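Record type: monomer structure entry
Structure origin: computed from sequence
Chain ID: A
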Amino acid sequence: MLSRIGLSAALRTIIASLAIAGCTTFTIGPAPVPTIASLSPNNVTAGSQTFDLIINGTGYVSGFTEVRFGSVRYRPHELRSVTANMIVLRIGASFVANAGMLTVTVVNRVLSTGGGGTATATFTINNPPPTVSSVTTNLPPPNDRNSVPAEGPPFRMLVSGGNFVPGSLIRWDGIARITSYVSPNQVATDVTTGDLAVSRTVQVGVLNPAPGGGQSPTTMPFTIYAVLRAVTFVGILPWFQVRVTFDDPPPPMAEAPLDGLYPRPPSSLPPRLDFPAGQWEWADETVNNVRVRDAFFSAGTAFPATRRSFSFANGPRVLAGVDVITKTAGTLTLNDGSGRSVTQAIAVGGVQTIATGWFNQPSATITVEFDGGRSLGITAISYLGLP
């Protein structure tokens, strides 16, 4: 058996012989201590696809250096490439699914001759910025969309969009609210009666937490509208209303439009409706056993036989609904100045309601068209007052 001295001498002889033969020589010594100068990239957005991470630095040794990405260990043979100054490794998508800060560690194994060590750097997985596409409520229609009445009942607000994460916060006019995470596409908050005390329009957005995250680039308007509780002409109803009956052409003295006689003595118009001058008058009558008060329109070149229009005298309003009664069946169409339209079949009988579902975009003009002839009575016009 060779002694340790004899073995060393033999190794030196072999190395010398290799050098003489033109082979490359190498020195077996301590493993170097690694350093990390930079990471490329040094951050990604949570949910990113598989990517290559480049570690720049010094003291890397192929076959001996390994890397830890957070808790994931890459052994030397699992690295894509290693040079003295750069390591390349592939990071799977599942390792960057959630936001957070990870430590990247380079480890040089300790050789039999000593040396070795570690170097660390921080890698950031950012939350994405959120997006907001709609705001709804859990109230029944029509208040299930992005508007509710002032002083109304509490409700749950649902904000839909994208890139929501646990910790996302709904912001109500810039103020963060207690928020429930529902899914990556929806978050929710509870709105109390105290939030609904004043009619106004608020902007609703979402804020994602750090790292990354931030405020949604857009917000959605949410309207708390005031309900007008003014003069009531027919029954006891919560909104301002008036009965109007359209007759075209005006009947002769002996003809009864619906029930009652024409002409009738004029009276003052309701303060919040603006009818065409000289083409209306008030009267009481009974229609299908319903006692009502009417404003009758007379003929005019600006008003075709089956159509009448009126406007709100004190500015645009949103038409909420119309109650009608007729002795001739037909189809009623409502249009407003915002380009919206509602059509509904009207049968002979009692008072019937046409709900518009319009709870935003105030209009100055409302047009009523009835193809069943001139025998149409509008018993109530309900509208909303907005801020």
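Annotation 1: DSSP finds one helix and 29 strands in the chain.
Annotation 2: The domain at 244-384 is CATH 2.60.120 (Jelly Rolls).
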